[in-house]
Every structure is written in structure tokens, then in C-alpha cells.
Amino acid sequence: MGGKERISAILKKMPPFNTLDEEMIARLVPQLALEKFPRGTYIFRQGTPSLQKLFLVVEGLAEVTVAGEQGAATVVGYRRPGEFFGETVVLTDATYPGSVMAKEDLTCLVIPREVFESLIYHNGGVAAFFSRTLLERMRSLYEEIVAEQAGETHGRAESPLFRRRVGELMSSPVITCRVHDPVTGVAALMQEHNISAVVVIDSEGQPVGLITERDLVNQLIAERRYRLEECSALEVMNRRLVTINRDAYLNQAMLEVIKHGVKHLVVTDRSMLAGIVSIVDLVKARSTGTFWIAHRIEAQQTLEGLADVSREVDGFLSALVAEKASVRDIFALVSELYDALTRRVIQL
Q: Per-residue DSSP letters for 21-82?
């Protein structure tokens, strides 16, 4: 498909342009362009002059960051297929208030300022769409500012644990297998990609289970529940999937891991499989390493060992205070750790 044909096909599928008639789309096509940005490329940086273009994501993922007074960049959002960026200064000569980088290989439909200006002036439906989206983003930004100011009121400085999002940490694309794939093939995937878990998907690409190295060892070698040459992914997979949205913060991921006693979280985006995060990923993301306690609780085989870990849980509280976490976050995390300790005591 040629460039013009592809642009026409995109416009006919992408809101709000799919509401335009054929004649209007035909007039738009020659004025637009498709631009590709390799992963890691900045489309624009904070403080640089407006390119006077609106960027609509066709393929890939764009990351939006804002740098504070100290120069530290904070991820404030992502733009996915069907979403746009650059809207804040497209109609002005102002500088960009944030930076946008291609988190994955990115393809954008680029609309020049004069074309966009004419489009929203002559098409009420298009103008209403962008107005609604901008208002929603302003509302979200307002809520973020209010939450941040409330935190500062209580003397809380931002901690990476409570500001970084799961999407920044997850492994993607996810290594998957089908429910009827042989486990020998699943084991080969783990060895080939040097991973400890494979997500099992159904015919529609939806995650339905998880197979870990431990599952294979326990069920096929230690317990010998199935014959290796006849066993499929469906028989050994763990159906108890714990999912989390890619926009959730790392402290929410920590809570899910501790609460459910799992080693992996399946990451979703708009109900679709987007990535996977392991307990090791979360441990590596911590500056203090205190999250390792949750893993140590599950690994203990004696009550004496748990008693030692319980003292580390007390130290966990001090670590969270040092990170200037909020009282609510501290209470929730420590409560989940003590619940995990209680569950392990009962098991032993």
C-alpha cells in the first residue's frame, strides 16, 4: 500500500477523522505525512520551539515526560495508537512544556498547523473531539497537581517507588505460547530467551495462564503428574493470573505481588496483553532493596527463619519513612507484609 493510500485508510478508521466524508478525506491526504521515529528517538524536547505540527500515533508507543526544577524527568503519560501529542503548542509559537520520546518504534500521522487549524474551524465534530480530549487531560493533570500538593503539605518528597509506572519496568513484547503447545516447546522458549515464565494465550491472544520454570519442575519432574512427551501448556499452566495496568505505579505492583503471593504480574493495556513484570524486576527497581523481604517470606522453611524476617518487616517501615512515603502507603504495604507473614506461618 502506497503512502497516500495508507494515510487514507488510517483516516477512515481513526476517530474523529472517520466521521469525515470521502471528499474531505481526499482533500486532506496530500497535506498529511507519515513519519517514523526509531525507539529511543525524541520527537521533541521540553523547552524547544513548537514544530507547529500535531502528531497522531498510528503504531508504537510514545512516552511523555516533564523535567522539574532539579532536572529529574517524570513520566506523566503515554500516547498509544489512536492518541495524539503536541497539541499544547500546535497553534502557537510557544515552547514545548514536556518531552516526547519513542518508547517503541513509532509511526505518526503528522498534521501541519494550518491544516489542523482549518480542520477544527470547518468541522464541529472534529473540534468537539479534540476539545473533549484536551479537557480530560487537563482534568487528569489537575488531579495530579492536587495530589502532589497534598503530599508536599504532609512533608512528602516524591519517591521513585510511588512515581514510576509499571509500563517503564515491564518486559515487552511478552514471550507467549498457545494452550495446546507442548511443554517441551515452552521449555525451549524459556531457554532461548533466558526467561523464567511464559504467558499462555488463547486463540484471541488473551492471557489465560502462566507457566514458570517451577511449574515445569514440580509437575513434570518432582511430582510426575504428566508424561513429558504428551503434556501440553494447558495441563501445567497456572490459571490464577494477577494482572495490572501498565499505567499503575510500582507501589501498586508491589501490593499485588505481596497480596497474592505471586512472582509475576501480567501487564495489560486496554484489556490487551502488554507486558510482564517479575518480582526480580521490582527488586531491581528499588533503591533500598527492602522489597526483597516479600520474597524472603515466601522462601522461609522454618518458623525461626520467619522470626528473623519479621524483624526485617519492622525495618521495612523505617525504610518507607526514609523514602518519605505517605502514611496511607506505608500502612497498606506493611499490612500486606504482615498478612504474608501470617499466611506463611499457617502454611508451616
A: -HHHHHHHGGG-EEEEE-TT-EEE-TTSBP--EEEEEEES-EEEEEE-TTS-EEEEEEE-TT
